[in-house]
């Protein structure tokens, strides 16, 4: 395993949730962390909590000019994690076209363009971790565009691993995680989804943001791992 001491770690979507948890762990391991996200106040508060080795800059991953400014301000990137996304999930029959396309717009193309703008700044031994979701291989409910988007992200990780080598590119694909994202959804829907997940997964519980962060730190530092997708999902994907 390589060390994160003194390494530049960029987390897009680092102001909350899984991204913030990764920033916490990377900071504790001695990294110099740069947070990105759309809301300056959230990033400022996160950086204040984490300490002087953490800086931030507002960025919208759906806007390539914004991404160019964000990465233009950095000398180098040693590790990049890109969980930034905001989208609507649901059945084809219920969603507008704009809602159905939103996972691809923010989660797929947002990550693709983030890596494109980061690429000139990636060091030779850098690594990239893309964010997917286990719905890619086991859809919990009708949400075909969201399912397809996550499957596409896992393919994108393999494709980028080929193009960017020796830079390593991997994907983390979590199960249902009790954290910031679900806290913002209606309580009844959250409890119903959590109950179904507990019944359907081998470990009979939902996951924690810290457990996904552990997987991301492993992918950052595991020097012979590239093109892989890791599923911190309690065994949901194959049961
Ligand atoms: N939690 C789960 O159960 C779960 C399971 C599987 C996969 N995931 C994936 O994990 C990712 C992150 O989820 P999370 O649980 O950590 O929730 P979260 O707290 O909502 O994290 C998303 C972060 O991304 C930022 N963001 C959203 N759109 C952005 C954009 N266009 N440009 C820049 N930043 C943007 C948000 O901040 P601003 O709004 O301030 O920009 C927020 O800080 C999502 O892609 C989700 O699909 C989550």
Secondary structure blueprint with pairings:
Layout: E1 8-12, H1 17-28, E2 32-37, H2 40-50, E3 54-58, H3 64-72, E4 77-82, H4 97-118, E5 122-131, H5 144-164, E6 168-172, E7 177-178, H6 180-183, H7 187-200, E8 207-208, H8 209-221, E9 229-230
Parallel strand pairs: 1-2, 1-4, 2-3, 4-5, 5-6, 6-9, 7-8
Helix pairs in contact: 1-8, 3-4, 4-5
This protein binds NADP nicotinamide-adenine-dinucleotide phosphate.
Keywords:
239 residues, alpha/beta, Rossmann fold, 7-stranded parallel sheet, two-stranded parallel sheet, 18% strand, globular, binds NADP nicotinamide-adenine-dinucleotide phosphate, oxidoreductase activity, SDR_fam
Ligand roster:
NADP nicotinamide-adenine-dinucleotide phosphate
Largest sheet: 7 strands, parallel
The CATH superfamily turns out to be: NAD(P)-binding Rossmann-like Domain
Identify the strand order in the major beta sheet: 3-2-1-4-5-6-9
Segments where pLDDT lies below 50 for 5+ residues?
A: none
- Known CATH architecture: 3-Layer(aba) Sandwich
Keywords: Oxidoreductase
Family: Belongs to the short-chain dehydrogenases/reductases (SDR) family.
GO molecular function, one term: oxidoreductase activity
InterPro entries: NAD(P)-bd_dom_sf, SDR_DHRS6-like, SDR_fam
Summary, kept brief:
With 239 residues, this protein is an alpha/beta fold. It contains eight helices and nine strands. The protein has a single domain (8-177, 208-230), classed as Rossmann fold (3-Layer(aba) Sandwich).
């Amino acid at each position: 395993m390589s060390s994160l001491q003194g390494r530049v770690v960029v987390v897009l979507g680092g102001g909350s949730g899984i991204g913030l948890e990764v920033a916490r762990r990377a900071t504790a391991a001695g990294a110099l962390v740069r947070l990105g996200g759309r809301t300056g106040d959230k990033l400022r508060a996160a950086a204040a909590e984490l300490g002087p080795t953490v800086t931030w800059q507002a960025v919208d991953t759906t806007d390539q000019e914004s991404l160019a400014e964000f990465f233009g301000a950095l000398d180098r990137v040693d590790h990049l994690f890109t969980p930034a996304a905001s989208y609507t999930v649901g059945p084809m029959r219920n969603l507008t076209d704009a809602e159905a396309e939103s996972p691809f717009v923010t989660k797929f193309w947002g990550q693709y363009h983030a890596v494109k703008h980061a690429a000139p700044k990636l060091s030779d031994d850098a690594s990239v971790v893309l964010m997917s979701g286990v719905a890619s291989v086991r859809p919990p409910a009708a949400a075909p565009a969201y399912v397809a988007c996550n499957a596409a992200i896992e393919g994108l990780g393999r494709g980028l691993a080929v193009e960017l080598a020796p830079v390593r590119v991997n994907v983390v694909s979590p199960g249902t995680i009790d954290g910031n994202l679900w806290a913002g959804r209606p309580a009844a829907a959250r409890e119903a989804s959590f109950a179904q997940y507990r019944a359907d997964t081998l470990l009979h519980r939902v996951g924690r943001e810290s457990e996904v962060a552990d997987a991301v730190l492993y992918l950052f530092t595991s020097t012979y791992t590239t093109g892989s997708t890791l599923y911190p999902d309690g065994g949901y994907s194959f049961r």
